[in-house]
Description:
Blueprint: H1 9-19, H2 32-53, H3 57-65, H4 75-107, H5 109-127, H6 136-147, H7 155-210, H8 212-218, H9 223-288, H10 293-340
Amino acid sequence: MKTLAPFSSHRLRQRISTVYPTAMTFLSRPSSSTSIIKSRSEENLTKLNECMDNMDDDVSKMFMECHQTDFRHDPELLRLLNEYFTTSKSVTSLCESLRKCLEKAEHDECFLLDETLRDFEEEKNGCAGLLEASFRKTVIDLRKFNENGVVVVGDDFLEKVQICHQDLAEMIVKLEATMKEIDKKLRRVRGKRAVITAAIIAPVIALATVSKIVAGIFGSVPVGEVTNFAASKWKKSTATLKREKTAVTSMERATMVALKEVERIGRLVSRLEAVERSIRVTADFAVKKRSSVAVAMGGMERERKRLKSTLVDLDRETGRCDGFVEFGRTLAKDKIFEFLSCGEKKL
Length: 347
């Protein structure tokens, strides 16, 4: 497969005229029907150009590769694809941000906790835990938790999680609405099959019955061929709708999996927030009431275990989420390509 040059909305607009030359020219003969067709074509082309302004890279490649699909007639499909890939990739971006937060936690908060506990053990063993002054280094370490504002996940990251969750939920609603529309079209096509077939064959049969002379001159009426023609048209329409349904189903399933993974990450982040808050409260209590340093450090030891356990769970869930989202997006991309290329599978 040839490697395509970087995409841009300007380049895509230039390619419209080569891939779909009729998009740029219209019939010159003045008539009301021509004006309506021209108006609708121009409106669809305007919607298409609006979608191309912020088009996702994967959608751009499909647009360039799948010449069998004329996006001028269905700019909403292009918009849906663009929103799906943008939303899916926002989850990948969220996972990358979370990995950076976890690395920072290992370097900052866990290191500070270990250092505080180590200094506490040294001072406790050195003075047999009898003198409050012996915990001077420990108290200095404890002050750092509030003075330095050690926080693994800030408000900006929590906002990203909420936005990502909301975008995924909205995407599922849009995909479900699209699925309902496809099911309606399938029911209409199946319902009209018998009517259309009868409408095509009835005149031929009537002509054969009334005019045997004509039939004798021109040969037998090709009723079978007419029936096959009507059946082939029906099968083609049905197959196209089924491919579209398969593509939308793959997007919906991938989005639902991503939503569940983001919800799990959200719960773990909330747990991490609770642990961090408890660590800061315990440290502040020990600093203000030095007679309780030994008791507070026992609580810090427990919070340290909770913190590391939560960080391990978050790291595992982040890798799991990123892998599932990437796999779902790849599978959906293949099904979308098969639909847009009219049944041709991607090599």
